[in-house]
Structure formats: C-alpha cells, structure tokens
Amino acid sequence: MTQTMKNQTPPPSRPGRPGQRQQERLQRKQRRQRRLVLLFSGLVALAILIAALTWALMAARQSSEAAAHADATATAAANAVTVNATQTANAANVQATADVQSLIKANPKGPDTPPKVDGTPTKTASGLQYVIIKPGTGGAVQSGSTVAFEYTGWIQGSNKKFDSSYDHGGQPFAVTVGQNQVIKGWDEGVTGMKIGETRRLIIPSSLAYGDKDQKDQSGKVIIPGKATLIFDVTAVSFTQPPAQQQPGQ
Question: Backbone dihedral region of 82: left (phi > 0), alpha (psi from -120 to 50 degrees) or beta?
Fold first, then answer.
C-alpha cells in the first residue's frame, strides 16, 4: 500500500485563470509608468528648486550690488556736500578775515565820539532805534545765530565812549543772538542784520542797564543808570558759540 502511494504520479498543476498573466503584465507596466511619473515629477521639482535658488542668488547679488552702488553714490554725494561746505566755510572765513583787517585798518581804535550818520532812524515798538550805515551782502542774522561783531559804544548826551572792540586789537565780539547773552537792545537791534552790514543802534535804558550804574572793578561808574546807549555795530561773520561778557562790561 505504501509502495503504491510512493509510485503514484502527482496530479498536474492547476492551470491559471484566463487573462491572469495579461493582468500581471498590465500591472507591471502601470507600476513602471508610475515610477517614471514619480521620477519625472522629482526631476521637475528638482529643476524648479534649482531655478528658484539660482534666481534668489541672482536677486540677492543684484540687490547687494544695488545697495553697494547706492551707498557709493550717497557717500560720494555726502563727500561732495562736505567738500562744498568746507570750501564755502573756508571762503567765508577768508572773507571775514579780510573784512576784519579792513575794519581794523579803518578804525585803529574806536572813535571817541559817535561819527555823524545820514538817514532817519527806524524806531521799533520797544523804543529801539536803528540806522543802516552800510548794507551787508551775507546771510541774515536770526535768533539763535552765533555772530562775530565789531562795535563801539557811547553814552548818548555826553557822547562819551565806554567800550570798543577796536580798543581791544579789533578782536570781534561773538554773540549767540536771542539767548540773553547781551542787553535786550543788542538782541533786538542786530536781528535781521546781514553779514557785512554796519548798523547804528540807539538803545534806551529800558533795553540796556535800566536804572543801575555799571561800574568797573575799581568802582568807577562806566555807564550811569538810565543812560541811553549808542552802538555802531558791524556783523563780520557767523561763528562758533561764545563764552564772554557783554560789551561795556
């Protein structure tokens, strides 16, 4: 019985279903197509990424070059402005120095009495009076301007000189206008002057030292109380803020 079973021929394999092999071929073909689609999509995505990176790098480079060009242009413009400002300032300084020397030459010392001037004084609401002796051609003096002046001051009535920058070697007197560094009549009287202008100021005591006598260190009265003051003032140049006393002190 056992021998018979050993020698028995095995049954033939079961044939596949109709069309199964064709379906398998189609499935393999579809899988290959999907792989190709995925590969192509990956290549396209990689190409897009490379293009985007390339564009970003080019844009960054162009932006950097544009910024560098703008910086260079701004620097060149700033340098040009600085050079022009320096040249202008140097020219103004040269002109101011020449003007001071000319004034010193014409006034080796301050006149002892007020020189005669032509013209009717202009009177302001405060009581200040002024006459333009010589027009200026430079910039206008405004509140906050720091200006160097040559000046001589007298007491009206006695016409006695009490102070003059020319008596101090022609050293200009620097004032920051409108900062109460000088008497009110000066602050008001020099405002609106042009550089190079000479102006006579007639300042009532209410805009000067009031009723109080002004004395020197020895106690001598230099300017009596209630005195009206006369100043001939020349605006020489714009300058740096000062640290000095008022005229006459």
Answer: alpha
